[in-house]
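W.,

You were right to be curious about this one. When I first looked at the sequence I had no strong expectations either way, so I just let the prediction run and decided to look at it fresh. Below is the sequence, 68 residues in total, followed by the output.
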Amino acid sequence: MSGPRKTAKVVPLKGRKCPICGMPAAQSYRPFCSKRCADVDLGRWLNEDYRIPAEEAAELDDEAFPDD
């Protein structure tokens, strides 16, 4: 004897917007608004689209550290 199936209510977070599309963020997918936007973000991470800029280390030559 089971009753009607209850679906999870998606409640938007106040003042938070989805970083992908700008719609209000949902508690169940936070900080995103939907599974689609969460998957888009995951794809960007997997494609290495998000990077932190860094300076490349200068090549060290043998003269910088002479052998004693």
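Here's what jumped out at me. The first helix runs from residue 35 to 46. And, maybe more interesting for your project: The two ends are 85 Å apart (CA to CA).

Coffee later to discuss?

I.
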